[in-house]
Amino acid sequence: MDIREIPFDQLNTESFIEEQVRALAEAVGDGLAVNALSGGVDSSVVTLLGHRALGDRLKTYFIENGLMREGEPQYIVDVFAKLGVPVEIVDAREQFFAALKGVTDPEEKRDKGITHVFYKDVFGKLVTDCGAKVLLQGTNYTDVEETVAGVKRQHNILAQLGIDTEAAYGYQVVEPIIQLRKPAVRAVGEALGLPEEIYNRPPFPGPALAARVIGEVTPERIALVRAATSIVETELADCGAFQYLAILHEDRVTGLRDGKRDFGHQIEVRCWDSTDAVTGTPTELPFALLRKIADRITAEVPGVVSVTYNIAPKPPSCIEAV
Ligand code: XMP
Fold first, then answer.
1. Rounded to 5, what percent of the chain is helix, strand, coil?
2. Cα(140)–Cα(175) distance, rounded to whole angstroms?
3. Which of 73, 181, 186, 318 gives the lowest tally of CB atoms within 10 Å of its CB?
4. Which residues lie below 8 Å from residue 81, measured CB to CB, with a gap of 6+?
5. Which atom of ligand 1 is nearest to the CA of 245?
């Protein structure tokens, strides 16, 4: 891999920003660029860098893939409106769920279900419609490293896998933060004037809640994991961990509700201490807090009868389950 990392302690945010803004302006020339904003730290930083370099020659879209957290699309549009960046929501729910139908293999979910629909069907069309030749993308150094090492194919890795985006999708991909790991991306976000609620957000995967449903991804199963995610995120908002999440398991288990057998769903809660997601340790959360989360999930998420907490570190576990 010939990409050089800029370690956090060697990063000068101001000169990094200046350099990337210059490089973006040069790469796009007097044409148009597009980018997809998911609301995560990486795509938020790229949106502001792109906006600084290109102004209204950058079209920013929020792809509503149906896999996002509760209230997410409008929340992100509102945050960026306050920063003077217009964001258009594109409703692509049907396309994503159609592509994910019947798919259970994790890598196939990423590849066929997410990467292909995102880059070709949804983005390919947007790019053609607005005449842009460049797509800005928030790939970071860890994404490249994990994909190249064969740990997991991150949905946004293309060139590093030998995919020629010009030939495959009809546009060039530019990746301004590819030399940075998460802590450095956050520092650049702060320097760009992103609100802290965004630059300090826990990481969230590009394939969104599809990365947290084991087995087939359907609108119904996403609704379950979305409701559990809301509870976990509310209860752990102040716990100081690196990342926390809920996973919907594929297997059902026997439970008991109102004196009757209930063959129900299982939710797994994960909460990680980590600095860069390369390794991680489960956070030693107070047991009373875990119990409160379990009580809320079993009471508020329909059909859930079991809640577990992951206590295995990464490696050999991973942050996400898919
Ligand atoms: P894993 O599960 O590999 O996650 O331990 C490491 C970090 O990357 C995030 N993650 C992803 N992010 N696309 C992304 O954009 C993906 O396919 C993906 N899979 C995992 C994960 O949330 C964690 O912060």
1. 45, 20, 35
2. 8
3. 318
4. 87
5. 22
| Angle between helical axes of 287-300 and 219-236 (0-180°, round to 10) | 150
Instruction: Pick the atom of ligand 1 nearest to 318's CA.
Output: 5
**What's the token pair of residue 182?**
């998460």
Q: What is the pLDDT of residue 147?
A: 72
Q: Minimum mean pLDDT among 113-117, 141-145, 168-172: which range?
A: 168-172
State the Cα–Cα distance between residues 133 and 29, nearest whole angstrom. 10
CB of 190 closer than 8 Å to CB of 144: no
Ligand 1 within 6 A of CB of 270 = no
Virtual CA dihedral for 107, 118, 133, 54, nearest 10 degrees? -110
Rg of the chain over all Cα atoms, to the nearest angstrom: 20
Ligand 1 proximity of 181 Cβ (cutoff 6 Å): no
3-state SS assignment for residue 194 = coil
Cis peptide before 316 (omega within 30 of 0): yes
90 and 117 in contact (C-beta within 8 Å)? no
